[in-house]
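Listing S7. Sequence submitted for prediction.
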Amino acid sequence: MAAKKTFEKAMQDLEKIVQEMESGDLPLEKAMNKFEEGMKLSRFCSQQLDESERKITMLTQDQDGKAVRTEADI
């Protein structure tokens, strides 16, 4: 059974792909495959960040949808 992908693991994998591509040592076909994989990881990370932002926004609003002030805001 495959382990669930996490944001942190996806970022590590993406960083590795960037390093491999920046080396300039990959043949074109392999570079294209790495690029495609990198784009998928990038989209996954972006979706994770968007979802986290939505959750934070929801958690920091009152019942009327207004932002809740915290001590950090003062």
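Caption to Listing S7: primary sequence and predicted structure tokens for the chain studied. The two ends are 48 Å apart (CA to CA). Residues 17 and 35 are 8 Å apart (CA to CA).
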